[in-house]
Amino acid sequence: MRIMQCWDDGDVDDIRLVEILRKHGARATFNINPGGWKSKRREAHRFKGEYQVNRLTLDEMPQVYAGFCIGGHTMTHPLLNAIDPDWALTELVECKRYIETHFGQQDCGMAYPCGAYDDPVKELVRKAGYLYSRTTLNVDLRLNTDAPMALHTHCHFLAPDFWEKFNAVKAIDGDFYFWGHTFELMGDDTRWQALDTMIGRLSDDLATEWIDVKDLFNR
Ligand SMILES: [Zn+2]
N or C: which terminus of the chain carries fewer CB neighbours within 10 A? Predict the structure, then answer.
């Protein structure tokens, strides 16, 4: 079975995640917002009202994400279905251009900020040239690769039924896909340890093979 993961927003805690991923030989896609700051980490929001979430700088991203797949998440993380379509298209096109220029990755997908999209937005994503765009909705068994501009995953990485879903997909030798944000682990070393164990278990499973999400849509 092929397995995939992606992580959104380009948070500073991705540094800790990539160490875990490299240790276990796991592949991943990181969906970034290149509208951030070049050399100073930008304050994004507070998690649980307590932990300050900061974005990686544009300067440090290439090194942090070396060897991993990069996806778009728009330049500045607007809700694409709530802004002017011209602005939305600019957000999409500029983000893709940034990934091509600074990461040398031509064919990339993206993830909708906050999972917000509608039919016109899907058209804009297609027009901007992305291979696919990920939502925050779930499928039970088979990925809906026939609808690449609204690609669902199986679950969030903290979903209580994570292994249940994994085992169901494994039973049909399907493609398994999950997503998350590293800020959701802030202040919780037990959860970080659990993630380390989870990635190790996925990598060590003789039935699994990590692929990048975009590999689902080879041109
Ligand atoms: Zn996001």
Answer: C
Structure tokens at 60: 């440090």
CA of 114 to the centre of ligand 1 (A): 5
Phi-psi group of 209: left, alpha or beta (phi > 0 → left; psi -120 to 50 → alpha; rest → beta): beta
Backbone angles phi, psi at 17, to 5 degrees: -65, -45
Query: What's the whole-model pTM score?
Result: 0.97
Give the Å distance between the CA of 141 and the centre of ligand 1.
25
Task: Please give the average per-residue pLDDT across 154-180, as a whole number.
Answer: 98
Q: How far is the CA of 197 from the centre of ligand 1 (A)?
A: 25
All domains in the chain, ordered by first residue: 2-217 (3.20.20.370)
Read off φ and ψ for residue 32, nearest 5 degrees: -115, 160
Tokens of 157: 């990485």
